[in-house]
Design brief:
The complex is a heterotrimer. Chain A has a three-stranded mixed beta sheet with strand order 6-5-7. Chain A has a two-stranded antiparallel ribbon with strand order 1-2. Chain A has a two-stranded antiparallel sheet with strand order 3-4. Chain A folds into two domains: 33-73 and 162-280, Cytochrome Bc1 Complex, Chain D, domain 2 (Orthogonal Bundle), CATH 1.10.760; 76-157, Cytochrome Bc1 Complex, Chain D, domain 2 (Orthogonal Bundle). In chain A, a hairpin with a 4-residue loop joins strand 5 (224-226) and strand 6 (231-233). Chain A has helices at residues 2-14, 28-42, 60-70, 76-87, 124-134, 145-157, 171-185, 195-199, 235-245, 256-268; strands at 113-115, 120-122, 206-207, 210-211, 224-226, 231-233, 278-280. In chain A, helix 4 packs across helix 6 and helix 7 (171-185) packs across helix 10 (256-268). By secondary structure, chain A is mainly alpha-helical. By secondary structure, chain C is an alpha+beta fold. Chain C has one domain: SoxY domain (Immunoglobulin-like), CATH 2.60.40.2470. Chain C contains four helices and nine strands; from the N terminus they run H-H-H-H-E-E-E-E-E-E-E-E-E. In chain C, strands 1, 3, 5, 6, 8 and 9 form a six-stranded mixed beta sheet that branches. Chain C has a three-stranded antiparallel beta sheet with strand order 2-4-7, with no helix packed on it. In chain C, a hairpin with a 6-residue loop joins strand 5 and strand 6 (112-117). The chains are: A mainly alpha, B mainly beta, C alpha+beta. Chains in contact: A-B, A-C, B-C. At the B-C interface, strand 3, strand 4, strand 5 and strand 6 of B face strand 6 and strand 7 of C. Strand 4 of chain B pairs antiparallel with strand 6 (112-117) of chain C.
């Protein structure tokens, strides 16, 4: 049964993918529109802002359980912890707020950003560790606990704000966007799935026992408290889990590919509200 | 140390609706760690809610209650501004308590 | 451990340890926590009920009796749990003189998942989040006027809540 399902998914995924032609030059604005239209045409009954709710925008039974849990969500503890960390200065007297505009409040939607100085994409998580290291502190593990608490708090202060990712007029920024797009559409792992196999070809369908989330807005709920983890996880944690799930090799947290694919997907979600932190099955 | 207990208590007319979320691993004792060893059971046994010296709700919980457990219930006889005391004790004898204002 | 704090506490402990005593003494309508105390009391935990297997044994250990189905017990549980580790379940009842609510997951390693004591003045309703090991009937039990009334619903679980 599982084999049949996997073969079916692979066959669908193998069909022509209209959103990405491997050799064409990147056209972010045009691709943004094509990506958006693909999902809104496929799911005309889903409100645009609802896509950020992942599987809950796709399945009524799941949605009801999500509403029950979101009434008093388990990520509240992570938000509290993040708020406390923000209020606690480093050993040198500075604090996280000193590394961000507006003291780090209400800025999550501007990440990831292309940093001209270092020539790479900086995600919120990376910016936080950069902040720590610049102030003489050790960096946090990228996948959970302290990093998830910080990003949970920052996401919470940006709730409802529209995703706001910029691709500056810099060939390196466009290259990073293109690299992210390529990662998203490249097959990997023993199951030979790309991110698109599940999240573009099969949103709302089941893979094994899970309902697949649409790729549109898939970053907006980060970080997430997953019932499966019994705790919080960051974007890195989820991407590593996805890699493992297709029996591929997980990359270290905040690897260049991860940052670039987050850049690509976040740009595709421009205008959609930040819903994080979120809960997921 | 931050409290493990988050409470929302809202009075509406004569009824006060209480929601509580508690930070606790609620280990069932059935799960193995990455080395294959069973993680011992560690879960809240009893939660008590008290208003004006009277216990208004008691939870008797076992290992099948979810991690970071949640409960919602409703009781009469309180008004906005009153105190609601919440306390829990687990199977290892650890405990915590908190007083929340009814809003 | 010796307890020299006097008769009331001894009586309460005796009642709580042997739930059969409740039925015999006809205390179905009385709240079991009769003395005010500062913090949750670990001695109140019904350990036999929580290690009982099967609906009948769990209810006998907890309440000293078994129950009968009633349409006045409302059990709200999903048809398919999104994840067996966190299943939102709510129970409410219009029955009179409700003193307790319990939730059983019949296919769990231990049947009793949670029990609630409802003193007078508290509504007969509770919402919680429970673990289910696999697809199972969930049974809500309401103690009303000294008798037990139940409602049962099957919840499908595809990702088990006990770590599987």
């Amino acid at each position: 049964m599982l084999r049949k399902l996997l073969i079916a998914v692979a066959m669908v995924a193998g069909a022509a993918q209209p959103l990405f032609a491997a050799d064409a030059a990147s056209d972010p604005k045009g691709e943004f529109k094509a990506f958006r239209d693909y999902f809104t045409n496929r799911f005309p009954k889903v409100a645009l802002d609802d896509f950020v709710n992942g599987p809950y925008s796709m399945d009524e039974g799941l949605r009801k359980q999500w509403k029950a849990i979101d009434e008093f969500p388990p990520y509240d503890f992570a938000i509290d912890k993040g708020k406390e960390m923000f209020a606690t200065p480093f050993k040198n007297g500075k604090s996280y707020g000193d590394c961000f505009p507006n003291k780090g409040i209400g800025v999550r939607q501007d990440y990831p950003q292309f940093d001209a100085k270092s020539g790479q994409v900086i995600t919120l998580d990376m910016a936080l560790n950069n902040c720590r290291e610049a102030n003489g502190e050790k960096p946090f593990d990228y996948t959970k606990d302290d990093m998830a608490a910080l990003t949970a708090y920052m996401a919470f202060t940006s709730r409802g704000k529209p995703m706001n990712i910029k691709i500056p007029d810099d060939p390196r920024a466009l290259a990073a966007y293109t690299n992210g797009k390529r990662y998203f559409y490249t097959r990997r792992g023993q199951l030979n799935f790309s991110c698109a196999s599940c999240h573009v070809q099969n949103p709302g369908n089941h893979i094994r026992t899970e309902v697949l989330a649409p790729a549109l807005g898939i970053m907006n709920a980060m970080p997430i408290y997953r019932s499966a983890w019994g705790g919080m996880g960051t974007t890195s944690r989820r991407l590593r889990t996805c890699n493992s799930q297709v029996r591929g090799v997980p990359l270290p947290g905040e690897s260049e590919e991860y940052r670039d694919v987050e850049y690509y997907l976040s740009y595709m979600a421009n205008g959609l509200p930040i819903s994080g932190p979120g809960t997921r099955p | 140390m931050a409290s493990t207990i988050r409470v929302r208590a809202i009075a509406s007319g004569d009824a006060t609706q209480v929601q509580a979320l508690i930070s606790h691993p609620m280990d069932s004792g059935f799960v193995k760690d990455s080395k294959g060893q069973l993680i011992p059971a560690h879960h809240i046994d009893v939660v008590e809610f008290e208003h004006n010296g009277k216990v208004v709700f008691t939870c008797l919980w076992g290992p099948a209650v979810s991690k970071d457990p949640y409960v919602k219930f409703s009781f009469k006889g309180a008004k906005k501004g009153d105190d609601l005391k919440v306390s829990w004790v687990d199977n290892k004898g650890q405990s915590d308590s908190s007083v929340a204002k009814i809003g | 451990m010796n307890d020299f704090s006097g008769a009331p506490r001894q009586t309460r402990r005796t009642i709580l340890k042997g739930a059969v005593g409740i039925a015999v003494l006809g205390l179905g309508g009385v709240s079991l926590m009769t003395d005010a105390h500062a913090a949750a009391d670990a001695k109140a935990w019904p350990d036999k009920a929580f290690s009982a297997k099967g609906e009948a044994d769990a209810l006998k250990a907890l309440y000293g009796k078994t129950g009968e189905p009633s349409d006045k017990v409302n059990l709200d549980a999903p048809e398919i749990a999104e994840n067996g580790a966190v299943v939102p379940i709510a129970v409410a009842s219009t029955l009179p003189n409700v003193t307790g609510i319990a939730i059983l997951v019949l296919e769990n390693p231990n049947t009793l998942a949670a029990a609630y004591k409802i003193p007078e003045g508290t509504e007969a309703s509770v919402a919680s989040r429970l673990k289910m090991a696999k697809t199972s009937k969930v049974m809500a039990v309401v103690e009303s006027g000294g008798k037990l009334f139940t409602a049962t619903k099957e919840v499908k679980v595809t990702v088990g809540g006990c770590g599987g």
